[in-house]
Amino acid sequence: MPYEWSTSTDRNVLQAWPYRSLSKRDFHRFILISCALFLFPLLAVVGSTVLWVLLGFFAITVVAIIYAIQRSFRDGQILETLTLTKDVATLVHRPKTGPTLTWNAQTYWVELGLEKEAGPVKNYITLRGNGRTVELGSFLSEEERAQLYAELQQKFSDLKTT
């Protein structure tokens, strides 16, 4: 799961981030294997001028792949942190670019919402309180948001009853 809970006696902290299927180490392996696979067919044209033309296309392809994957890594630097205490719920959203966004409200008055179909994505989780409505985990998959919503219901219920 691209989110985790840290729980202590007086606080629950949720950290959520976009899913990453490729680690940095695997990225390097992928590039090396791709280069080897691209270069292998060029052995047939070694010694001819066609080799230099094909090497140009090879270089453009490798640079484009590296750029696309690094862009994906940058896009995945979003981090959301929801801190729940008995008194205050605080959501901190750190986007890939721009300023950090913060929202807080009294935990007892926070309304947890789930838009199954009406939101911008299915199972759209919202928190409403202190005069504002904020989204939570819009980058998670549909199933992950549904599971997170159930966990949030339990955490808020536990905090409101104690």
Explain what you see.
This protein has 162 residues and is α+β, with helices and mostly antiparallel strands. Helix content is 38%, strand content 29%. The chain has helices at 24-39, 50-75, 142-161; strands spanning 3-7, 11-16, 79-85, 88-94, 101-106, 111-115, 124-129, 132-136. A 5-stranded antiparallel sheet has the order 1-2-3-4-5, with helices on one face. A 3-stranded antiparallel sheet has the order 6-7-8, covered by helices on one side. Strand 6 (111-115) and strand 7 (124-129) form a beta hairpin. Helix 1 (24-39) packs antiparallel against helix 2. The longest helix has 26 residues, at 50-75. It is elongated, with a radius of gyration of 23 Å. The chain starts with a strand and ends with a helix.
Give a quick set of tags describing it.
alpha+beta, five-stranded antiparallel sheet, three-stranded antiparallel sheet, 8 strands, 38% helix, elongated
